[in-house]
Write a structure and sequence with these properties.
422 residues, alpha/beta, Rossmann fold, 2 domains, eight-stranded mixed sheet, binds zinc ion, Znf_MYND, zinc ion binding, zinc, Mss51-like_C
Amino acid sequence: MAFEPFIETVDVQWPSEMARTSDIVAVTVSYPPGKAYEEKPVSSASSTPTKYTELPREDSLNDVKIYVNGGLRQCVMCEREFLGDQLLACSKCRAVIYCSSTCQKQHWKEAHKHVCGLYKAMMEREEELAMKIFLFPCSVDQPCKWLESLGIHRKGMWRRKCSCYSYCPFGLLPVKPGLSDSWGGLDDEEYPRDSPFPNHLREGISSPILLSGWSEYYNLRSLPLSSPVADILTHPLTLYYIITTLSISSKNLLLNGKEVIVHYLGPEGELDSMPAFAEVGHLLNGSGNVQIVMVGPEVPLNLSGTTSGIGSRVRVNLVRGIYQEEATYLPPPSVVVALNCGFDSHTIWGDALDLIKSTGVPTFFTDQSEISCANAKQALRAAGLHITHPVTPNPFRSPVRTHGPSSNLPSYSNGFVLGVNT
Ligand SMILES: [Zn+2]
Ligand SMILES: [Zn+2]
Ligand SMILES: [Zn+2]
């Protein structure tokens, strides 16, 4: 099993005064040796806006077109919302969008000139990161429409993939019994059965099934590549990948038939996707046990403290609260995971990171884009942690490319993985 070769576009070193803030724009960037980006003399004319509809496009970059169809986007400068086809992009990097050339010029002067070269380089990774094996549309501008086109809008676990059910707290979506219903009524062969893998013995001994990526998994389950289930399975399979491949200590526990205890931080939509986590147990293939302790403020009060068995080898405990406050009451972890950790938007990570530093437990984070990983690294370093598993594309990231309201940078649920204390 090998990692995809991947070189981080840039290792962003932040000035210390920026270390714990979430503003990523007004920083200086130190490029790696020999990789300095050409910076033209500063003038507002050195980057001019381009209208989306005028972008030159290659067939392979079809997904750029989706913005023209007009989802609601936001000008990065004035933060006003507009329809996609009314907006401009930075003509050099195309990564950030503006309502007007006035906003674009002001943003260039105040912030963007420092990161435009970096963003351009990150935009160039798009091809490398796209997963081309799948036969469903892997680019989403308007989630409701995307789900509609697949026949799964407002159904089963997919209800968390758009904002139609955002009024309902996480973990409390009503469920109908039946696996087919939880997978949104997909055809029988389009979702994984809740059943063991037949005939999967190595030299007559059962041991956890090791997977290198989606195509191996789809093969193993005989799923058609037109099935979008990877977008939901990204959470359980990323967790499984971390336990079996990235964390040596938890892997050894499994091989010895022991229990791996995972502290799973900040669950949200996953709380309504429990049927998908059954796959973790099946992939264990008769070896070891996993206890997943999901802890976070989004766990609903009436579910906090409950334990449910998912198959015979996986137990999930739900704990409502802030990790650093609850941790002493939890069974000591073999590994800690925080998926789509969002250091960009969460400012409460500081104390949790201090705890992770003091316990020394292997901890893995995923985040959606390279720039969010750069933020994550900065927060980790500010907490005195060393990155021992460098930022790497996650083979079990969702194949579905998303974007922020004002950014076009390649972004995927669980896009990249990094780790400390590993
Ligand atoms: Zn604007
Ligand atoms: Zn730019
Ligand atoms: Zn919807």
